[in-house]
Design a protein that fits this description.
246 residues, alpha/beta, 32% helix
């Protein structure tokens, strides 16, 4: 089974234009992501899917492969689908381009889930929610799954809702981590399907996958990771890196 990792990296981020080239401890953000992804043992190849020549040139200087894609894609998933359209692959892993501290082991866990059971159309990751503020924060997406580890639903609301306090000890809430693996076949089907009502309501594209019958494996991990969404996040990530080195 051939596994291809793809890092979507567009220029026009609403909150942080050009963030792929933002310097973090002296290196472009995209360099940190590439470096981490290359440590994953499961990837047969890695490429960056971008819409900007500046990102393309930096990736080339790093010795990595980049693919130029259209600028009008509505999501990173659509960009990835274009990038792998003519590439031989069984599984495609969407590695978020704004997470410089992505754990290579998590990439491997996602890939292994797809390799060990061919019934899965997709796989994604979750981590425990440890604070009340995260639990009620709509930007923190919550996940529930069944006894076989198959995702049932994703929501910005609190799920599950614990009706009786006496039952709270039996419930652990989990947050979704935005890394995905897809079979190439299902990825093609997904991007050809219009957003469903649930996706439009919650602004969560993984609900489209569930809507069309996609079987999504849920992989558990302990760390939620750190994303760079705004210029202010750069200093925080640099501080985390500094502490890790000390």
């Amino acid at each position: 089974m051939k596994v291809v990792g793809v890092i979507p990296a567009r220029w026009g981020s609403t909150r942080f234009p050009g963030k792929s080239l933002a310097l973090i401890s002296g290196k472009p953000l995209i360099q940190w992501v590439i470096k981490a992804a290359l440590r994953a043992r499961s990837l047969d190849s890695l490429l960056v899917a971008t819409d900007d020549e500046r990102i393309m040139k930096v990736v080339a200087k790093l010795g990595a492969k980049a693919v130029m894609t259209r600028q009008d894609h509505p999501s990173g998933t659509d960009r990835i689908a274009e990038a792998v359209r003519d590439i031989s692959a069984d599984v495609v892993i969407n590695i978020q381009g704004d997470e410089p501290l992505i754990d290579p082991n998590l990439i491997d866990k996602i890939a292994d889930a797809m390799k060990t059971d061919e019934k899965w159309d997709m796989a994604t990751a979750v981590a425990p929610i440890s604070s009340e503020s995260d639990l009620v924060n709509p930007t923190v997406v919550k996940v529930v799954w069944d006894a076989k580890g198959q995702a049932l639903y994703f929501s910005r609301s609190v799920i599950p809702f614990v009706r009786e306090k006496t039952d709270s000890a039996d419930i652990r809430h989990w947050r979704h981590i935005g890394i995905y693996a897809y079979t190439k076949v299902f990825l093609g089907k997904f991007v050809k399907t219009p957003p469903c009502a649930l996706e439009r309501a919650e602004k969560l594209e993984q609900l489209r996958a569930l809507h069309i019958g996609g079987r999504i494996a849920v992989v558990q991990t302990n760390e939620a990771g750190i994303g760079v969404d705004t210029p202010e996040d750069v200093k925080y990530v640099e501080e985390v890196m500094r502490k890790a080195r000390s």
